[in-house]
Amino acid sequence: MDFGGAHTKIKLKVLADYLQFYVRALKNQNYHLVYIDAFAGTGDMMITASPESELFSGPPETGTYEGSVRRALALPFHSYWLAERNRARFTRLQQNLSDLPTEHRDRIRLHCGDSDQVLRDWASEIRGKIDGKDVRAVVFLDPFGMSLSYDTMKAIGDTKRADVWFLVPTGMGPQRRAKLEIKSKREFNDRITRMLGTQNGKRLGIQKAARRCSMAAPIQFFTEPPTLTRWRIIFLTV
């Protein structure tokens, strides 16, 4: 089971509303509609309270809620392409989907592995036709840390057939990953460059995290602020 705070419930509600409007707008068009979730998790979500949420909005509702996958499956997309890298979460996802009717399960594609790579493969498929129809897709990306590359995001954007929801990890995500697994400042810089497609990363709140890394040799850190336009230009709608 995946865990989140009160903000997660709001995020899932906004996503579900958007998906409903999306399929309604395109239901009479000659498109094959695909929902893509590259960080599908287990399919459900445990909402937990936090001191911060109680401070600003009072005690939130807690409990188990349908995750992004379950909410998308309730809507009439023609295909659902789901990826999850963690083997335990993937197994739980398979179990959670086993109660669906056979005709519904047949429209689900499951992948256990690197989301960054499979998204590039799926971007190629979006360019083509499925069952003789052009493809239109909603791609929901809620990654952990810096697991997606700019090149992958650009590949999706270049299809000009996808609406992309990308929750960009600009602060705590890079700091968390730096503290846990990145051993040198050079490696940290390389990770940020891979994610942004540029070496302009100083204003993302990552300099402090980089100082936590072991320093084998002095390395010049990023000196220019990033331009998030590099992200915005690839968020193309249908």
Structure description:
- The protein is of the alpha/beta class and 238 residues long.
- It has two domains: 2-167, Vaccinia Virus protein VP39 (Rossmann fold, 3-Layer(aba) Sandwich); 172-211, no CATH class.
- 42% of the residues lie in helices and 18% in strands.
- The protein has helices at 6-26, 51-57, 68-73, 87-97, 102-105, 115-126, 150-158, 172-181, 185-196, 207-211, 229-232; strands at residues 2-4, 31-37, 44-47, 63-66, 79-83, 108-111, 129-130, 133-141, 162-166.
- Strands 2, 5, 6, 7, 8 and 9 form a six-stranded mixed beta sheet that branches. A three-stranded mixed beta sheet has the order 1-3-4.
- Helix 7 (150-158) links the parallel strand 8 (133-141) and strand 9 (162-166).
- The longest helix is centred in the first third of the chain and has 21 residues, at 6-26.
- The protein is globular, with a radius of gyration of 19 Å.
- The two termini are 33 Å apart.
- The relative contact order is 0.13.
- Mean pLDDT is 75; it is low at 51-57 and 202-238.
